[in-house]
Amino acid sequence: MVSARSVSVGPGSLGYTDLPWIIQHREDRCTLCGRCTAVCPKEAIYLAYRRQRMPKLDVLKQSRGNEYRTFVGIRQKTNMANACIGCSMCTMVCPNEAIMPVPNTNEHRTLFFHNQKGQPQTRGGRRNVSGPNLLDRIMFDRISMLTDPALDAGRHEFSLTTTLGRVLAPEEFLKRQREGGWIPPTREIFPFIIGSMSFGALSPNMWLGLLQGVAYCNEVLKIPVVMCTGEGGCPPWVLRSPYLKYIILQIASGYFGWDEIIRAIPHMQCDPAAIEIKYGQGAKPGDGGLLMWFKVSKLIARLRGVPEGVDLPSPPVHQTLYSIEESVMKMIQTMSTAFGHKVPVYPKISASTSAKSVLNNLVRNPYAGGLLIDGIDGGTGAAYNVSMDATGHPIASNVRECYLDLVAQGKQNEIPIFAAGGIGKNGNVTQNGLALIMLGASGVHMGKYIMQSVAGCLGNEKSRCNVCNVGICPKGITSQNPKLYRRLDPDLVAERVSEVFMAIATETKKIMAPLGRSQSLPVGMSDALGISDKDAADRLGIRYVC
Amino acid sequence: MCRLALKTANEHFSPYEVLTAMEAMQEGYDGSGLGLLLRGLHFEDYKYNTKHPVLSGIAHTEAALQRLNTLMEQRGFELKYDHEFQTHPEMIEAKDRYRYFLRVYKMPAAFDGKSQDAIDNELMLTRLTLRANGEAHEKDLTVFSFWPDVAMIKEIGWPLDIGNALTLHDNRVTSRVCMAQGRQNTNYGINLYACHPFFIQGVATMTNGENTAFVPIRDWLLGKHFPGYTGYQSDSEVFAHILHYTLKQLKLPLQAYKHIITPLKNAELDAHPQGQFLKGLRDACRRLIIDGPNAVIGTLPDETCLLVMDHKKMRPATVGGRNGAWAIASEMCGVEALIPDRDPSFDFQPMREHTIIVPPDRKELTIWSQLDPYPLAQVA
Questions:
Q1: Which of A149, A153, B33, B197 satisfies CB 3.0 to 4.6 Å to B37 for a cystine?
Q2: For all residues of chain A together, what is the average pLDDT?
Q3: Best of B224, B287, B290 to mutate (most A CBs within 10 Å, chain A)
Q4: Cβ–Cβ under 8 Å, residues A321 and A347
Q5: CA A502/CA A506 separation, integer angstroms
């Protein structure tokens, strides 16, 4: 017998039903091969030995007794550090369907213990709000039918590109053309852009796979996809390669990787697609980038010019700048000058009620090539949970407001607005993107959706996985540990990139064709949008339908 | 579906001829309205000086006409001639038509010495003031145009019936150019202003098809804060305004219109001798790209006529004629009805890259292709 007093139950003691995910293990199927325990990124499961009583009743002898055996099988740890994250890698590697994590349908008490040792919860992923979001509920309801025939998405020619970079007013363009003045650089790009995910946040294999896929989209499929580096520089061989033209180089408040970039400028075979200056991020407004020490490998340390194995928290603002005028005007002009005024430079900010003031500043800055607004549903590789869940502004109304502000000034063609934050959160990537485009965005950036669709990222908005911050990504997408990232085959990632963009291109046509649009991306075509939510319709200035 | 007919000829002709051509195309339209624009005017009972602006419209009440008189006097315009249509009101569907007016005014003395642009603006603002005045008085005054040598009529009903109701066959008013369109804009509700052709400062267009990119284009034009860029009861009104913007504001040649509303594809621009410039023009005017299907027929103050197709070319339009007389119509039978004595084997249906220009001398057509070099020295 075990004495009741010897059972130690403290305030932080948890049982299986307190955890978000409960491991179901079938002893009858398990062959004890050990693959599940080996693969588990959290070491949440272990091989357990239990003494098991087997009641024995001998009817003939009319005697009762017990026999004992040793149970050998998989059990789950119940401490916070090793709580199962539901990634299901154990299920995927099990040859015999013996194990799987099951979501705890009861409320789980780990919510109250994400503050071990005084540390609030940090994680990767997105705001933990699941279900259809506002973008998912927008319908394209202005169908060309009898007033004019709908187009054939399969047979018509479509123009699906958008402009990245500042565009002059027609009068000014002609004046400068006559006088030989500077005409700001622009790029014709596919409106769905792979958003900023750094070399560091992503594993080398993931990054390579993305780049291969992007190059294939451009050079073989003729879909002019571009991708953004995020803060953390760019591998030197890429900087000196002809693929640089598909890459938007990001500079953020930590300036990581920019020594390497500046040194490479004289050796560049082509100009980068653009320069993105990150001032804010939708997932964690007011926070700088964060690469936790787990992920600062030798390679990353070299690329970023920092010691190995230290946390790399970028400051929340660019330290040399103290005002919007400084940040926006001078920094943009400096970056533009660095690349000979041949590369569009634009800032990225988090969606916020103050977005319009940034925008209006950009309107007056001749070097500003656009504005990227990142909404609250954007993803991140590492942030405090509270920042992710509670801080920020949804993208739709923010983009709409900014677009209408430009419309009032007649400047909507001059400063393209790009939108990010939750595009494809529920898989409806083209629908979400086109909804934002018709609300006024010139294009959209997608990060998390790309990780999910091209590399099989397991994270979701119900607290599944989301351990990108600690470098234990079970798929090898966001890890710098070669043992993990070798699981990810760059060729397969590249193949998925091309599949994803081919599908987005087709779906874009399938949305544009019934609206009778084919010759230009329907930026600001808000008359095509409807939503069955009166308040949202009023706020966005689109049709209420029911 | 809209039916469009335009005739341009060296000799003055009656607008009724064009209405007859509309009748030839009747199978294709709903006959819900008529819009007429006459240019190169001739009045049987008045020797018209083509420098004098003509005010066209409808006074729906006597009070509206009186207000019109007062407003014109206040602005210093002196009435020279008031054309009275011989009307048969019983043949008109609408009952609130007090008076159709075509009035010739003399410019105010204050205009002497003003630049042409300033005068053009004054004329436009006068039209807009009258229009606003009507709209402020339960729409009892409708004004279609106020411009030298241009007259317009718009009405609801079957086109030929309207012609009969206004006795347009009496040759009292004739013209060298006549545009007609046979439909009210039933897409957005009945409104006289929504009927083609649309007119701004001498530039007029009419269109068939639907412009699906209407809202973004309208938003952009409104953002120019040019007083004439207003109205937009019809998605086709933007075609006239884009043409006006191209010619009058940007001061580009007519060929630029096609490059603005339907730019070439990237691959085509790469191969074009002025591709770099045209890419820049496309980017700068990106919000003006139309997304038809549309065929746009237009006329300019110098009596140049034009026809352009949208990029998809899903709307028909044919041009045909002979030295001295040309017709553009949405149907071949329309061209046949307008100029039967031509060689039909020379009729031409433009493709997506073409702009058809009938120059003021009306000797021969120009078929200009977007792929041809662009006629502006500055881009060389």
A1: B197
A2: 93
A3: B287
A4: no
A5: 6
